[in-house]
Amino acid sequence: MVDFLLNLRRGLILKAERSLTRRFGARALDVPLSMLVGVLAALVAASLHTLVSLLEKVSSWMRTSASPWLFILFMLMPFIGVTLSCLFQRFCGGPRYAKSLSPLILALHRGQTRIPFSEVFTHVISSAISVGCGGSTGLEAPSVLTGAAVGSNTASFLGIDRRRRLLFTGCGGAAAIAAIFQSPVGGILFAVEVLLPEFSVAALVPLLISSAVAMVVSRSLFPHEQVLYVVNPPWRTDAIPFYFLCGIICALVGVFIIRSVYKLTAVMKKYLHTRWQKLFIGGAVLTVILALFPVLRGQGYSFITQLYSGNVSIIGDSSPALAILPWTVRLVIIIAIAILLKAMTAVLTVDSGGDGGIFAPTMFVGAFVGFAFARLVNLSGMAELQEMNFVIVGICGVFSAVLRAPLTGIFLIADVTGSYILLVPLMIVSSVAWFIARLFEPHSIYNKALAESKLLLPDRDHTMLQRFSVRLCLDREFVALNPDQPLKNMSDVIGFGSSQEIFPVLDEKKQLVGIVSLEKLLPVMLDNELSKNLLIFDLMESPRAEVFIDSDLADAMKYLERFKLKHLPVKGKNNEFIGFVGRNAIFRLYRSMNKEQY
Question: Which CATH class is domain 2-221?
Answer without folding.
Answer: mainly alpha
